[in-house]
Structures are given as structure tokens and as C-alpha cells.
Amino acid sequence: MGTRVDGLTDMFGPEGPSLRELAVQALSSVEHGYDLLAPKFDHTPFRTPGRVLDAVARALDPLGPFDDGLDLCCGTGAGVRVLAGLCRRSAVGVDFSAGMLDVARLRVRPEDGPAVGWVRGDARALPFTAAFDLVVSFGAFGHFLPRELPGLFAQVHSALRPGGSFAFPLGAPVPANHRAFWTLLGFDAVMRVRNALWRPPFVMYYRTFRLGTVLAELARAGFTTELRALPEFGRRDDGSPRARLVVATKSAAEPGG
């Protein structure tokens, strides 16, 4: 949901990164690559579209109120803006790219509302325990291999207070007869070859975060999960939603840690 494949040519505009800059990024580590991309990230199609952010905010609003929120892998802070409109006390962004956080600090400065904070850290080793009522994430899961999901979801579970929720948008699978399907498939194939031949690896895959696996791993981490259609994106020919909000809730009876 966080990436608009059909707009890839936008990144070559005057404000976006050049092809050479993208090549240098792709041959770096994930962390250093995003440090390099950070100043121009918001001018690429990799940034979560505003209509996705707005749809998620509308879907989450009835589930509140929330006191404290965390944006997991916050990048330049678009999701923290969503939290700032939903949370009464604090909205925190965590990311392991110092460059992305530097941009976020400059671009997200709400004049009123909750306190906003930024933490440099790894989502697989969060420095929080029972600190948040809501955790969100937008378009970041391609940076985690399937085998890392149990640990990632366990970290989020630990960071939430009892009764807290972990929410993220998820698009329906692209059908095989759509051009984007082959674009995604080709991208993943290129990245696998790149990572087999070049170190350090750059983990970014589009087709590894599958709904069935995700739901199973969320349950294993102790969450109760529901799927909420995002009506702004309509429905497919078979009647299923084009986009859903996954809302995974920690039991109110569980201890904080």
C-alpha cells in the first residue's frame, strides 16, 4: 500500500532522485541507502500517498481515543502526522535511518496537539515496553524477510499497552493479468540477484508480505485481528476490497510487557 508502482517515472522529475542516485542507493545498505535518499524521498512514489494516510486516519478515528501512538519505520514522518491527529498525548516515530529522521524533524512540526518525538532504532528491537495505545506502519514491511515477522510482531506486542492496537493498510494482491504484477515480480527478482551478488544486502521485496502468513503470525504473537475495508479504494470485480486496514489488538487482560 505504501508504494505506487504505476508512478515510478515520477521519481525522475526535477525534484526526485536521479537514476544515478537511485543506483548508488540500491548498492548501499538499507540504512545508508535511505540516508542518501532522505532529502528527496517525499518526491518519489515510495512515499505513502496522502489518500492512503487519510483513509487510515478515518478508519482509526472511531476506535479511539488514543493517548500515545507510535509510527513504526516512520521515514520522513507522514504517519506521525496521522498519529498527531488521533492521539491526545504523544506521537512518536521510530526509524533506523538518521537521514530520514532528520527530514522528519524539519517537516513535522505541529503547532498544537500531542507532543511529537523521534527515536532512531530498529523495529526488530524496539526500546519500548507497554508505552503505546496505537502502533501504525505504512509501506515498510518489504524491508523484513518472512522469517523476521514473528520477532517483529512480538516487539510491537510488547510495545503496546493492554488493549492497544497495531494497524496498517494492506492492498489486495495484484492480479497476474495486470502490468503491475509483472513489475513487482521483476523488481523482486532483480533484488534477489542483487543480494546474491553484492554486500551489504538491501532488503526490499514487494511480494513477501502475504495476508495469510501475516494473520497467522499476528495470532502467534498474541493479537486478535480484524480486517476493515477501506471504502475509498473501492472493490475488485469479485467484490473483495481493493484495500483493507489490518487492526491487531492486544488483549486487555494481558500484562504490559
Bin the helical content: 25-40%
Largest sheet: 7 strands, mixed
Helix and strand composition category: alpha/beta
Q: Please give the alpha-carbon distance between the first and last residues.
A: 30 Å
Could you please describe the fold and organization of this structure?
- This protein is of the alpha/beta class and 257 residues long.
- Helix content is 33%, strand content 21%.
- The chain contains eight helices and seven strands.
- It has a seven-stranded mixed sheet with strand order 3-2-1-4-5-7-6, sandwiched between helices.
- Strand 1, helix 4 (78-86) and strand 2 (87-95) form a beta-alpha-beta unit.
- Helix 3 runs parallel beside helix 4 (78-86).
- The longest helix has 19 residues, at 179-197.
- The protein starts with 18 loop residues before the first helix and ends in a 7-residue tail after the last strand.
- This is Class I SAM-dependent methyltransferase.
- It holds the Pfam family Methyltransf_25.
Chart the SSEs and their pairings.
Elements: H1 19-26, H2 30-37, H3 50-60, E1 66-72, H4 78-86, E2 87-95, H5 98-107, E3 115-120, E4 132-137, H6 149-159, E5 160-171, H7 179-197, H8 211-220, E6 223-229, E7 243-250
Parallel strand pairs: 1-2, 1-4, 2-3, 4-5
Antiparallel strand pairs: 5-7, 6-7
Helix pairs in contact: 1-2, 3-4, 6-8
